[in-house]
Design a protein that fits this description.
This protein is mainly β. It is built from no helices and 10 strands. It has a 6-stranded mixed β-sheet with strand order 2-10-9-4-5-6, with no helix packed on it. A 4-stranded antiparallel β-sheet has the order 1-3-8-7, with no helix packed on it. It is globular and about 40 Å long.
């Protein structure tokens, strides 16, 4: 069973934008905090944006002001709008619960190149 299906990644130049989508398959999606994680080449997978069940958001300092996380509980979907992308944003992006992650999806590759 695939718990999360991520999409929307791609190749983009610095300053560009992408919108990532994650469709969740879990019964209690609306009740849990969700997060977007980034795994850069050779690095650990770390969260960059989180959103609670009642839409409170939190971001790491390097993406705050550029990324926006949102969700629609009627569609079991969480999005990540990424603006002003930088080369250091390159990586595979995943969605999952930040507290007790479920099995990971395949992620979606974001590459920011000059």
């Amino acid at each position: 069973q695939k718990h999360f299906v991520e999409s929307g990644g791609g190749l983009v130049q610095p300053g560009g934008s992408l919108r990532l989508s994650c469709i969740a398959s879990e019964a209690d999606f609306s009740a849990v905090t969700m997060a977007w994680f980034r795994q850069a080449p050779g690095n650990q997978r770390n969260w960059v944006a989180r959103i609670t069940s009642n839409d409170l958001t939190n971001y790491t300092p390097d993406v705050r002001g550029r990324f926006t996380i949102s969700r629609d509980n009627t569609k079991d979907t969480v999005w990540l709008q990424m603006n002003d992308l930088r080369p250091e944003d390159t990586g595979v992006y995943y969605c999952n619960r930040p507290a007790i992650p479920l099995p990971w999806g395949q992620g979606t590759q974001v590459t920011v190149f000059s």
